[in-house]
TrEMBL record, chain A:
One of its GO terms (molecular function) is ATP hydrolysis activity. One of its GO terms (cellular component) is plasma membrane. It comes from uncultured Sphingomonas sp. This is ABC transporter, ATP-binding protein (Cluster 5, nickel/peptides/opines). It is found in: Cell inner membrane. Its main location: membrane. It is a peripheral membrane protein. Residues 7-253 form the ABC transporter domain.
Amino acid sequence: MTAVPAIEVRNLRRVFRVRQGLFAEPRQVVAVDDVTFGVPTGSVLGVVGESGCGKSTLARLILGLLPPSAGDVLVDGKRLADLDRRARARLIQPVFQDPFASLNPRRRVKDIVGMPLAAQGDVAAAEMARRVAEMLARVGLSPEQGERYPAQLSGGQRQRVAIARALVLRPQIVVCDEPTSALDVSVQAQILNLLAALRRELGLTYLFISHNLAVVEHVASEVAVMYLGRIVERSESEALFRAPGHPYTRTLLASVLTPEPGLGVPDVGLGDVMPDPANIPPGCRFHPRCPQSFERCPREAPPAWATTGGFAECHLLEKPAPAAVAGAAASQRQLAR
Amino acid sequence: MSEALSVPRGSGVGRRLALMLGTLIVGVVALAAVLGPSLTPNDPFAQDLGKRLVVPFWMAGGGWEHPLGTDQLGRDYLARLVYGARISMVIGVLTVIASGLIGTTLGVLGGFFGGRMDDVVLFAITCRLSIPVVLVALAVVGLMGNSFTLVILVLGLLLWDRFAVVARSTTMQVRNLDYVSAAWCAGCSRASMLLREVLPNIATHLAVVATLEMALAILLEAALSFLGLGVPPPLPSWGLMIAEAKDYMFFSPWVIMIPGVALFVLVFGINLLGDGLRDMLGTQDAR
């Protein structure tokens, strides 16, 4: 029970200052707002949300690509900021969205995959070549493709190269930032299956960020729903898709396009106001778009209430009995660990 | 990703022709600079006052002994022109190497690290841009006497601004690409990120700047030599040849036309080469 979570995030916050004009006051954009969660070793936490909700910023914070404005990121129980670059690389690796931008066009595939090994500085050339070849075979690429340049590969093959690069050091944790959304639909399933198979074989922990609910349902054991920089609901994957607790999660699920002709785009009653992370509404940040909001919502930020599979931040879920409230808080604490 | 952006610029055939012509001109001049003395039996420094201002072969009275005639001291003009090509090319190449090293280092550091470092680099660029190159060159040469090395030093230390500007802006673009982020996550040191990820991907842009700077350096050297503050006589720099010929241009116009045309053609060729390179990269780099 006291096992250290693979990723632990404590009160993480990231603010960007955006200058609007020469004389305008710079605006503060809160991309990630006081987020706390843990990802148990060996599990897959899916993070969903619409564009601009802060999920990519969250990924970059956890990878150490961005320093947090406040809070801590712990990887395998150690503060990310305290790790040196080699130790960090051995623990946590990324797979980025666009395989056309994530591979250096001037290097051969085998050099791209070997880069993390080379950066360790103590791997002999022969050993490096052996491990690169083994990794390429694992992701389904031939040794001959290792001699090529990224421009000579298809999108799916490039994403396999990116996965090979992420796994060649045998990290425990992989942060997948929309790893399939730049790929053709026919290739997406192959990459997802590859990621799932590699996770089983190598015992990996994934933080899987996506805006595609079907993809998250397919891979994730737990799902966190992000809205304007906060995790508004977190739950076991099955429970979340069966019985979503937060109104935002419900509208997200309702907005999934169905392949049925004539239905058109579903109207989920969110209106056409886009959320603005530079101007977060008071109280519950979802209330201006919420179909069920009432007078309490703009006044008070909702605490986390227990749901069937986890917690959600919504006033509608408040249980009158004090015992239930205490239980909810306890279960939230337990989930956060 | 950006198929829509990779529209070829200009007509393909014309562009390729320009690139080929530029390569040909620069290649011929470079070859002449390398082969130099073996192209002509005559010594560029040997004076023969009995044979002053001999006309070139295409004019009445010209011969093949001195194909491009002789100058006012009876020195073979072809030999001096070929030797002058060597001086122009050496000055061009060395200036580009020196200024390229300075400018690229500053630009890449500023663009990659940003913040305080970038402020310093921007300030250095602004300072450099407010220094008039020709005036500084005149002052330095006036104080220290003219020499071949001094010309290269002055030009090399002053012509790095465009390298710095281009290196800085391209580095800022590349720095934010995912493959640089991936290199950081892979545990690469900052030095290896700069050398392996950033530099190879901005090198093509720097090559274009290098051609422009080389043409500029050659022209500046000619201008300084014309003013008597470039390479010292009797070295046959093209600018010096033009300067020495200007007293005779009314009766022997070829003495000023030959080095003038040579200078024009070389700079024209280098610029064609640069334009061609840029267009080639524009279509090849687009993924």
